[in-house]
Design goal:
- The chain is an alpha+beta fold and 215 residues long.
- The protein has one domain: Jelly Rolls (Sandwich).
- It is 19% helix and 29% strand.
- The chain is built from three helices and twelve strands; from the N terminus they run H-H-E-E-E-E-E-E-E-E-E-E-E-E-H.
- It has helices at 17-32, 36-50, 206-214, and strands at 70-76, 83-89, 97-98, 104-110, 113-120, 126-128, 133-135, 140-143, 150-155, 162-168, 177-180, 187-190.
- It has a five-stranded antiparallel sheet with strand order 1-2-10-4-8, with helices on one face. Strands 5, 6, 7 and 9 form a four-stranded antiparallel sheet that branches. It has a three-stranded antiparallel sheet with strand order 3-11-12, with no helix packed on it.
- A hairpin with a 5-residue loop joins strand 5 (113-120) and strand 6.
- Helix 1 runs antiparallel to helix 2.
- The protein is globular, with a radius of gyration of 18 Å.
- It binds fe (iii) ion.
Length: 215
């Protein structure tokens, strides 16, 4: 039996559909343009739609670690033009001061995040740039070498995990980038990798095909 719904991705037999639709639309976007401001502006709208609901992320990609924040790869574009990651914070966990070297979008899915941007001054030292911001579910933030690429991010919640969905203009786990000593501004190379050797299966559309065939 088909269930009537205004939103075809709300089908519970295909819970991963919102992520699949996002990956398809992002692929179309990177096919259309390589312009960073267009990618950030249009990618932001796509990511806002994805994180407007919290019913599609498989549990395996939502598990916190008692010690370190986790970065689970959800999808990497085969041409490495973008990647999608679930970032899972345990209570009280935070990043070091770091950069990305490519554009990035951060969409809050669950819980809340505190973000502090940093900027390198004329003396070469790093200093906080503006005040701390809180990202709430459904909100999207952006970073890039042109709009500001250095920040510190932390779970805003002391008593439970938070999860944000990140999209980057590269295969981010394999990008050589930097963490910084906040006192001196000295950079240190790092390559983040990913926390799991698996990605979600976006492509089991069999239930919808079966339902269509029997309709
Ligand atoms: Fe970051």
């Amino acid at each position: 039996m088909m269930t009537a719904s205004a939103d075809p991705t709300a089908d519970r037999s295909d819970p991963i559909a919102p992520l699949r639709e996002f990956v398809i639309e992002m692929t179309r976007l990177v096919d259309r343009t390589a312009d960073e401001s267009a990618l950030v502006a249009q990618g932001r709208q796509l990511l806002a739609r994805l994180v407007a609901r919290d019913d599609w992320l498989p549990d395996a990609f939502a598990q916190p670690d008692p010690q370190f924040y986790r970065q689970y790869l959800l999808h990497a574009d085969p041409l490495e033009r973008f990647s999608v990651v679930s970032f899972v914070w345990g209570p009280g966990q935070r990043t070091p001061v770091h950069d990305h070297t490519v554009w990035g979008l951060i969409g809050m899915l669950r819980g809340a995040e505190r973000c502090q941007r940093w900027r390198r001054g004329a003396d070469g030292r790093l200093a906080p740039d503006g005040g701390e911001e809180i990202l709430q579910p459904g909100q999207v933030d952006a970073v890039s070498p042109t709009i500001g690429d250095i920040h510190v991010v932390a779970n805003a919640l002391a008593d439970r995990p938070s999860i944000s969905i990140h999209v980057y203009g590269a295969n981010i786990g394999a990008v050589r980038r930097h963490v910084f000593d906040p006192a001196t501004g000295a950079p240190k190379d790092f390559v983040s990798g990913y926390s799991l050797d698996a990605v979600p299966n976006l492509w089991d559309r069999s239930a919808a095909v079966r339902a269509g065939a029997s309709a």
